[in-house]
Write a structure and sequence with these properties.
- It is a single chain.
- With 477 residues, the protein is mainly alpha-helical.
- It has a single domain (5-115, 133-393), classed as Sodium/glucose cotransporter.
- The protein has 20 helices and no strands.
- The longest helix has 50 residues, at 161-210.
- The protein starts with 9 loop residues before the first helix and ends in a 9-residue tail after the last helix.
Length: 477
């Protein structure tokens, strides 16, 4: 195992500490502003402007999967992950920016605050309850992100990894519970800047160390020639599975929370269009760094360890601390948003809507804060699931969400013959299909579960909606 402690200095600790204390301070400052109503707490009173939207959305899209996970993929898959995941992700964000985001903000009624609210608006309350399953998978994903933070803090400090995970997790829980999306909106602006500068410094460091892109390319090709080809070792079905996972933003509760928090649809178009190129560039830097790490430290205990060894080798003192702060920033942004959304959905869309309908707005905020602590604790415990690496976290979790919810949600915006029973049947059958294909059958014939389930969802949705359209008591949406 590589000893990282000699590479980590007091300057690096100071940079990381200043960042961490600053983020917690924001939670204190925004506490009162966020406590006026659930809408203020959850969607920042729908007042986010273009600069803030760029910071909030990019910081939400940057996470430890985008940093460490994509680096691990670069190590194990080569350049192919850019072609089958990074670029498709960027392309698929354009319809979100130009149509779905603005429609969510300007055309959907103001009472629609959460993703399950949107599902109920398109279909009915039963389907809304099924949509509340989304937080479960967001929590599992956030556990993978938190593990990456605990891992690097463990490497540089020598502290037990369970302790570093707990310390990082408590910090995230604290500032999320204090100020909700108002805290995220302010800190995400800072986190976006930190992560962008850190990524640029890493790219310069790696290119300087190797003397350009060509030496990296040749060294990786010498190990495995397929690692420098567009598809690598991936089959056609593997490629389809990655592309489906790339569409996960269409069913990500964070996306719709950000849309709902914008001042208007025009702000969404500008902010989200600007982010497309930035996101592809950032992700590609991490893939190339993973490829470089595979030839710099081939004997590393894991791709993650090799990645961090590369980071600390090519970056000077101070920038190492900045890059670790960037990872912490990425995780705090994404995980805090997932915790906030999960707790908010459980409090508003499950407890209030189904069990305590007369709960006041203040009561909903209090319950959400309590559930933020509970969900955060569950995430800390869930890091155990990802102790072998987080490279496939989004592949599996994002793939499930897309397979089950992509068709009903996107069709909800555009399909004129959607029905409440059609939406409910499609979601229910898709959840069962995924569980059976993945866990009972073990993904037979080499067909990934998200691919099989997506086709089931597509077929069942349109058959069920068309079969029930004429007899539907009302036209939903």
């Amino acid at each position: 195992m590589i000893d990282f402690k000699p590479l980590w200095t007091g300057v690096d600790w100071l940079i990381l500490l200043v960042y961490f204390v600053g983020v917690l301070g924001v939670g204190f400052m925004m506490h009162k502003r966020a406590s006026t109503s659930f809408k203020s707490f959850f969607v920042a009173s729908r007042k986010l402007t273009i600069p803030v939207l760029i910071g909030v959305a990019m910081a939400g899209w940057y996470d430890s999967w985008t940093i460490v996970g994509l680096a691990e993929c670069g190590w194990t898959m080569g350049i192919s992950v850019i072609f089958i995941y990074v670029v498709p992700t960027g392309i698929m964000r354009l319809p979100l920016a130009l149509w779905i985001g603005p429609m969510t903000r300007d055309k959907i009624p103001d009472y629609v605050v959460t993703l399950p609210d949107l599902v109920q608006y398109f279909y009915d309350k039963k389907t809304k309850l099924l949509a509340a399953v989304v937080p479960i998978f967001s929590v599992l994903y956030s556990a993978a992100l938190l593990f990456a933070v605990g891992d690097v803090l463990h490497l540089v400090s020598g502290l037990p990894i369970y302790l570093t995970v707990v310390i990082a997790g408590i910090g995230i829980i604290f500032y999320t519970a204090m100020a909700g999306l108002w805290a995220l909106a302010v800190t995400d602006m800072i986190q976006f800047a930190v992560m962008t500068v850190a990524a640029g410094a890493l790219a310069i460091g790696v290119l300087t160390h190797f003397g350009g892109v060509q030496p990296i390319w040749e060294a990786v090709a010498a190990v495995d020639p397929l690692f420098v080809t567009p598809l690598g070792h991936n089959s056609a079905l593997d490629v389809m599975a990655w592309v489906i996972a790339a569409a996960a933003l269409y069913v990500n509760a964070q996306s719709y929370q950000r849309f709902g928090a914008a001042k208007g649809g025009g702000e969404i178009k500008v902010a989200y269009s600007v982010m497309l190129g930035i996101g592809i560039s950032f992700s590609s830097i991490m893939v190339f760094t993973g490829m470089a790490a595979s030839v710099m430290f081939p004997g590393a205990a894991s791709p993650a360890e090799g990645f961090w060894a590369t980071v600390f080798t090519v970056l000077p003192v101070g920038f190492r601390g900045l890059f670790v702060a960037a990872l912490v920033a990425a995780v705090m942004s994404t995980s805090s948003a997932d915790i906030l959304i999960s707790a908010g959905i459980l409090a508003k869309d499950v407890v209030k809507d189904f069990f305590v309908p007369d709960m006041t707005d203040k009561g909903t905020i209090k319950l959400t804060r309590f559930l933020i602590v509970a969900v955060g604790a569950f995430i800390i415990l869930g890091t155990y699931l990802w102790s072998e690496g987080i490279a496939k976290a989004w592949y599996y979790i994002g793939g499930f969400q897309v397979a089950v919810f992509f068709v009903p949600i996107v069709a909800g915006f555009f399909y004129k013959k959607k029905t409440a029973i059609g939406g409910f049947i499609a979601v229910l059958v898709s959840i069962i299909a995924y569980a059976v294909w993945q866990f009972a059958l073990g993904a037979p014939y080499g067909i990934p579960s998200n691919v099989a389930t997506w086709f089931v969802s597509l077929i069942v949705y349109f058959i069920a909606c068309n079969a029930t359209y004429k007899n539907s008591p009302t036209n939903v949406g």
